[in-house]
Amino acid sequence: ILAPALTSFAGYFSAEFGKPFSEKPNQIGIGVGSGVVVSRLGPGDDSDPALTTLATVTASVLDRLGEIGVRAYAGALSDETASFVPDQDQVASQVGEESLHALAIAGSVQGQAAAESSFSLGVVVNGAVIVTDLKMDTVASISSNSEINANMSASESMSQVQVLSTNQLSVSTDAGGASVSAGVSASGSSVEIAVGGAENNFMSSNQTIATIEGSSTVVGESVTVDAQHTPDLEHIAFGVAVSVSVSLSSFGAAIGFSGAFLQVDQSDSVWAGISDSHVSVGAALAVQADDQTSMNTSSGSGSLQVSIGSASFSLAPSAVTNKVTVGNQVLAWIGEQPAADGTLVDTSVSADTSTVTAGGSILVSATCDQDIDNTAIAVAVSVAIAPDFDSAAGAGAGASSTVTTNNVVKAAVNGVSDVSVGGTAGLNVSAIDSGSATVTVGSGAADFAWFGASIGISLAEIVNNDQVVAEVQNSMVNTTAAGTPVSITAEDTVTLYTKSVATSLSLSIGAAGAGGNSNITSNANVAASFGANSQLAPSGGVSPGDLGVNAQQAENLHAVIRGGSGGLGSVGVFNSDVMLSGSTGAYLNTENSLDLNDLNVIASTSQTVLSEGSSLTIGGLAGTGENHDVTISEAVSTSLTGNNAAWNVAGNLQVDADSGIDATAQTSGSDNAEGVSVSASLMGVGFFKVNSCVAPTVQLTVTDVTLDVQGNSSFMSQSMNQNTTASKSGSGSLIGGDAAKAFSENSPTISLTTAGLDLTGNGNVTFAGVSDGTYSTNANSVYATVFGGSAARSTNESKPSLNVLLDSGTHISSGGTVQVEASNKMLGIGDGTSKKASGFMARVGAGGGATGFGGFSKSEMTSSTEIQLADEVTILANQRGDVLIGASNQWDSTQLTHLGTGGALNDALVESDLES
Fold first, then answer.
1. Is the pTM of this model over 0.70?
2. Is residue 475 within 8 Å of residue 482, measured between CB atoms?
3. Range of the domain at 864
4. Residue 1 counted as domain residue
């Protein structure tokens, strides 16, 4: 047990005040301070091996009744772990304590008040820095030819062998710098400068490992190999700068900068495995790697600058960055350890000498359930007061926050010559990526002076590059009980959320600008595979069980942007963008024969994607631009390859590649959403645009397989998508223009291909390619102007491509009906009878003096639906079966365009186009 309790503190504080009402010609006050903390849990040098907490049985023989535990703990003591500490006097004060806490603060205050000085100067600079490094290995192992025999005990219901490694470090770091400078001069000039900032860097490269390895033998009623990674991480950085300058008869200036910079890099490893060893259990065997990292990062800065004089100037910039990168390896395996070098499915697997026998179930599970919360806030206020137009102020606030995940989550049975399993649960190989990442960014800038400018910028981003793989490669699996199933499942269900808020206010003869991005990019790759010539067969004459190879992806992606800008001149630019690519694949690839009950090979997605925002822009001269985008280009694939091997299925066969998408891009003035996008000005323009492109690639291939199926057989490649775009604006100006534009594209590419397929079945056989899409495209502009115009433009382009190819060498013989289908459906939603804005594809409501308005709708369908039967393809429906072959296209659209305007001099145009 390693239970560190490390607390580090560095602080600098100063206060300096000049002589009150001094008559010296010059007054100068200076305050400079810093606080630095460097903390490490690990080796003294970067190049040295990690600090290790090790519980191991090596080259030993253990033969006992009951439980045998090999456990390694690192982190905060709990009631459970505390019970194992020999010296209980040390325990009470440390249960629940943080493993590491680092605090660095620097703060200074200086002030002066001069009666007769010609010049008064104050300068305060403070900064705090924290650097934290974790490099620790927590290892529990049975190794080096050890022999473990846990016999049944009369006093214990189970004889259990547990190999457990746990990392539950609790770490918090806080860095802050604050500066305050103030000066008053009765007759001279006064200049005050304040700088406050903080930097917080955290790095982690821990390993949590639980293994049985090195030609060891373990026997028990149940065996658990478990690596648990549950660190709790909290990091904070803040900077404050305040300066006040007062000159009763001359020039006054206040200048300040505040900043907070935070960076986190986590590259931990969570490994649980059995390699080159022999394990025999009467009941259950579990090999589990579990990452449940909890991370909370916050950074903020504030700058307040005030100057008063016969002439005055103030400048208040504030900046924040918050960057988190997580690239953990979560691996669970029996046999050869899976690669974590970017390889998705391990197709080149070496033979491992391991053998595993379980009378009950075998579970190989890798789970990544991270919770990441990231916040960045920047605020800047600048005030300059002087008579006769002699003051100027500037304020700028910028905040940026990014989370990038590069996790590798793999569960594998690789290169094992004998995996024997019985019971109703069977063999379950499972890789799951869940959890959430949340990024919240805010900026606010304001100035008050005769002349001034302010700008607020917020940038929020999440990038997901995770890999999730469940695989059985180059292994022999024997089922020893009737109906024992084998399940291989890879699943991605992460939730990603970004929210960016940017605001700016200028109370001056000047301008205010606000802008921001809220972006999510998901490139996750998910795969489930039974391949590299693996074998699966019942032994001892028992009936076969099911084989399921399933890859599933159901991500929830939500990007939000809010903004506001107000001033004599006012500009706002606000963007949200969600991109979903990556892949989901299910693969069955073996040259060996298979005897199964049901066979299911399915790759499926059910994605929810939303990009939205709202804004408020007010000014004499104003311009607003909003843009909300969704781009989906995911790949979904299912593949069966057999080199003419015979696969016998006593039940039903289901092979699917299925893409399901619900995509929305909208201004948040749309129905059932928060906020509304508004622009109000004397002269101004507003442009509100939404785009959503849904273009998945769905592919199903069957190559060189001989199938004998007693039940029904289904091969389906399909895309089911809902695509919604809605742009709504409300604007008003004396002179100006407004436009709302909505664009949607629905272009899935779907294919189903067989070559060298020899299928004999007693039930029905279906080959189906399906494209089923629904789009709702809505642009709505409400505008009032004396001179100007507005337009609502709504466009939909649909280019679905669907191909079903039964290529040469495909021979189907069925006792039921054989159906070959290609179905392409597209539905455009519009409901003019509801009188809701969403019922119209384009809608304009406007009025004014000399005006021009337009409402435009256009839908274009360019679809391809095709069935090809190559030469030497045979389809035979025996008994009373039918052969049904059909391809169909269907497009239903209700496209309504509405224009309601009024004006003294009015020009209006309404247009609606359909192209097929």
1. yes
2. no
3. 642-667+685-916
4. no
